[in-house]
Amino acid sequence: MPDTPTPATMHKNPPAPAAPGSGAPATDVGRVEAERGRTALAVGVIEKIAGMAAREVSGIHALGSGLSRTFGAMRDRVPGGKSSIGRGIKAEVGEKQTAIDIALVVEYGVVIPELARQVRENIIDSVERMTGLEVVEVNIAVNDVHLPDEPDVEEEEEESIPAGQRPKLK
């Protein structure tokens, strides 16, 4: 099966323009975008795509550091609050390139270098395919290892609040 070009690879190696008078449309991604306008991607878009791509890899327990997960669990409990798919992920976005930093908590027993390779490949593939940006780097920080008998931060929060009561705000 031939590789389907992504917008990022088409930008790196654009196909030859159609011959004049052939009736075939020009497929140069950069030129079409320049003639018809720009597409701007918010940092949050890249962070969400990277977060979803990272979660697809088995062996990851959670994204983010302990502190960000604690604040995220509290934010999720606030009425109207939304859980953040991009928690634990920071992206820098340029016109043609992006760089991503991700913090992970891994399950006990996984081979961390192999997990990091899979996460990096999945994030690069997803972000380049969906946005057309070139991912120049994915930096991975493993902040913790989740043990099988260890409760989650979210589980600890649920246990500390009696059923039917709202959490007390400080």
Question: In terms of topology, how is this protein built?
Answer:
Elements: H1 7-12, H2 29-36, H3 43-55, E1 60-63, H4 66-77, E2 89-93, E3 97-107, H5 112-131, E4 134-146, H6 153-160
Parallel strand pairs: 3-4
Antiparallel strand pairs: 1-3, 2-3
Helix pairs in contact: 3-5
Concise synopsis of the structure shown:
With 170 residues, the chain is an alpha+beta fold. The protein is built from 6 helices and 4 strands.
Secondary structure tally: strands:
4
* Largest sheet data: 4 strands, mixed
SSE order = HHHEHEEHEH
- Count of DSSP-assigned helices: 6
Work out the oligomeric state of the chains in this entry. single chain
Overall geometry comes to elongated
Which range best describes the helical content: under 10%, 10-25%, 25-40%, 40-55%, 55-70% or over 70%? 25-40%
Unreliable sequence segments: 15-32, 67-72, 155-161
Describe this structure in words.
The chain has 170 residues and is an alpha+beta fold. It has helices spanning 7-12, 29-36, 43-55, 66-77, 112-131, 153-160, and strands at residues 60-63, 89-93, 97-107, 134-146. Strands 1, 2, 3 and 4 form a four-stranded mixed beta sheet that branches. A hairpin with a 3-residue loop joins β2 (89-93) and β3. It is elongated, with a radius of gyration of 21 Å. The N and C termini lie far apart (59 Å). Mean pLDDT is 74; it is low at 15-32, 67-72 and 155-161.
Q: Which features does this protein show?
A:
single chain, 170 residues, alpha+beta, 6 helices, 4 strands
